[in-house]
Specification:
Number of helices: 3
Shape: globular
Number of strands: 5
Order of helices and strands: EHHEEHEE
Helix content: 25-40%
Distance between the termini: 23 Å
Radius of gyration: 15 Å
Largest sheet: 5 strands, antiparallel
Length: 161
């Protein structure tokens, strides 16, 4: 299991993708799907960290382990201090990759919103809203749970064969 914290800003989504891609390497059969789904979940993490209006830390106009139920479908701009449990700084999200028997498990933890993550049908002209539908389609299984630091959403990909 390998984890990395990222600041909850849009420019860090690329770094989260690169983190997963680097761990899996160029020849890994699940690399492309893992990178795509990580991108979708980290985008959601950044949007939730920004809270209403999509603004993070006063930036005007800028968009900001699996014990859940598999396959079933914010607040102020501060984060919970991991050690002390105190709200006192910019939000961040955590990406964890674990090699499992049949493939890989990726989790994304963020301060979260109170909404239940579920795939939706955004309509043909919508710019966003397809992330969890992609996860639902490509992942062997996925789910979420809440803990003291927020929401953990995860997906598992299985190797072909």
């Amino acid at each position: 299991m390998i984890s990395h914290y990222f600041p909850a800003t849009r420019d860090q989504i690329r770094h989260a993708r690169d983190f997963v891609a680097g761990l899996l390497g160029d020849g890994h059969p699940l690399r492309d799907d893992a990178v795509l789904l990580t991108s979708e979940l980290t985008t959601n993490a950044v949007e939730h960290a920004c809270g209403p209006g999509g603004r993070l830390n006063g930036e005007a106009g800028k968009s900001g382990g699996p014990d859940g139920e598999a396959g079933k479908p914010g607040g102020p701009d501060v984060a919970v201090d991991r050690a002390a449990g105190v709200n006192d700084g910019p939000r961040e999200f955590l990406v964890t990759l674990t090699f499992v028997e049949r493939g890989v498990l990726v989790t994304v933890q963020d301060p979260g919103s109170s909404r239940i993550p579920c795939p939706r049908d955004p309509g043909p002209d919508a710019v966003g809203g397809r992330g969890l539908a992609l996860v639902n389609t490509l992942a062997a299984r996925w789910g979420f749970h809440r803990d003291s630091l927020g929401t953990v959403i995860w997906f598992e990909l299985h190797s072909p064969g």
